[in-house]
Specification:
By secondary structure, this protein is mainly alpha-helical. It is about 70% helix and about 0% strand.
Length: about 220
């Protein structure tokens, strides 16, 4: 039966969109140093489209996996750049990870499964790895931290504190890397010293997820 999990995910996407709107200028500035200076705008368009699509759902009939499937389609339809297929695949994988779960309130185990699916979806679609100076330098360690916390049975607040600490460290580490994937790879060594904008936006997304799950 549909439950609170779908509502938590819808609130999560509202919070993601809000933080991206607040940070979109900074994200585009980061992108300007090594890319096309449009990352913040692209992410804003994508998550506004997601929330528009989610607003049409009947929450009394919606499961958590349905929310993520709708988000995947909406993001892909709105964002034609490389980020679109990456996050669309991520949300589609997350939907698949939650499809067989019976926990409707999305406890830490479900949250960890979702983060793991997002990370693997981005990795598989982009053919990248940790260390390539991309959003994977945030998503992979964040997913690992979530899995470890779930295995230990940590409280959600403590788990998410560690997830965000790990995510921020991953984003900061991209300053020391030379880009080998995406548009940033075109500038080669000149990407050194700059934070990857996709990593920065991933930290924003994870922060919103923490707020949705720990305060919602």
């Amino acid at each position: 039966m549909p439950g609170n999990g779908a509502r938590r995910l819808i609130r999560m996407f509202h919070l993601i969109s809000a933080v991206i709107e607040r940070e979109k200028d900074r994200l585009s500035e980061l992108d300007g140093a090594i890319g096309d200076a449009d990352h913040g705008i692209t992410m804003s368009i994508g998550f506004l489209a997601v929330n528009g699509a989610l607003a049409r759902l009947d929450l009394d009939r919606t499961m958590p996996a349905d929310v993520l499937s709708v988000a995947a389609t909406a993001f892909l339809n709105a964002v034609g750049a490389s980020t679109g297929p990456l996050y669309a695949t991520a949300f589609k994988r997350a939907a698949q990870a939650l499809a067989d779960r019976e926990e409707e309130t999305l406890g830490l185990a479900g949250q960890a499964a979702m983060l793991g699916a997002i990370a693997s979806g981005i990795r598989d679609r982009g053919k990248g790895e940790r260390g390539d100076k991309t959003m994977l330098d945030v998503w992979i360690p964040a997913a690992e931290a979530a899995a470890d916390a779930a295995a230990r049975g940590d409280p959600e607040a403590a788990a998410w504190a560690k997830i965000l600490q790990t995510a921020q460290a991953g984003a900061d580490a991209t300053r020391t890397m030379v880009a080998t994937r995406g548009r940033a790879a075109r500038v080669g060594p000149r990407s050194l010293g700059h934070m990857d904008p996709g990593a920065a936006s991933a930290v924003c997304i994870l922060g919103a997820m923490r707020d949705a799950f720990c305060e919602g």
